[in-house]
Amino acid sequence: MTRRVLVLGGTAEARALAAELAARGLDVTTSLAGRTRHPRLPAGEVRTGGFGGVAGLADALADADVLVDATHPFADTMTEHAAAAASLAGTPLIVLRRPGWTEGPGDRWTRVPSLTAAAAVLPAGARVLLATGRQGVAEFVDVDAWFLVRAIEAPAVLPPRSELLLARGPFALDDERTLLDRHAITVVVAKDSGGATEAKLVAARERSLPVVLVDRPPLPEDVTAVGSVDEVLERL
Ligand code: NAP
Q1: How far apart are CA 121 and CA 110, in angstroms?
Q2: Candidates 45, 61, 71: which one to mutate for ligand 1, based on the most atoms within 8 Å of Cβ?
Q3: Neighbour-count burial of 130, counting CB atoms closer than 10 A to its CB (0-12 exposed, 13-18 middle, 19+ buried)
Q4: Strands 146-151 and 127-131
Q5: Cα(first)–Cα(last) distance of the chain, in Å?
Q6: Atom of ligand 1 nearest to the CA of 56
Q7: Considering the entire predicted model, what is its pTM?
Q8: Ligand 1 and 169: CB distance under 6 A
Q9: What's the rounded Cα separation, in Å, for the pair 222 and 211?
Q10: Across-strand partners of 163?
Q11: With a 6 A CB cut-off, is 74 part of the ligand 1 pocket?
Q12: Which stretches in the chain have pLDDT values below 70?
């Protein structure tokens, strides 16, 4: 019987899952990478910091009946490690990936495969809302544009012409509208994270602003994902 669940977290859905598991009386431990100083904490136990690669995670699985990878869709190294470690330890793995966003009427999206590609398609002189998080901002330092860089914590480097906005989503639609207007934003750059942070895309659509959307990295070979906390609970 499944009693002990190790959840690789750092997302809203990992917190929602931990709450459901704890409410069902399961022993749930959520693992956080330790990237943010004041993370939102889930129900149950929490451990923080890397495992030291695949072997370290496989060792940690001695204390778990099931591993749930509920990391962010762009945390692809952790997802690869989870698949390899689960296979090494013989522990069942469930991957939870919230669905990505779908372009609708009025959207002006350009999908790109990477942050590097996003930087390459930005028009000179653009005023950019860079909403891709703290990691990867360095890709944009040579782009001839002005950036409103939004992140939970300050990135190591900023583009030479930029303003830093420290904020944690999800953001209300009205606030996103105000932000785009106040800073006269002409392009939004975002990751196809899916989930509740889509208000910026709606506000961009309303203003007919182009959006450069970075595609998710692929899942490891032979790994399939479920899209919701309910599906994880069904599997368990
Ligand atoms: P990553 O590049 O895929 O992982 C790099 C290394 O960080 C992993 O090899 C692992 O170290 C450690 N790590 C990552 N997630 C971990 C976790 N949940 N528990 C313990 N160790 C973890 O990861 P990332 O993109 O930097 O993301 C780090 C965390 O932030 C993840 O938990 C993710 O859910 C969250 N997050 C990421 C993004 C994003 O855009 N990437 C956005 C929002 C939240 P070891 O090899 O030493 O085990």
Answers
A1: 9
A2: 71
A3: buried
A4: parallel
A5: 9
A6: 48
A7: 0.93
A8: no
A9: 32
A10: 148
A11: yes
A12: 1
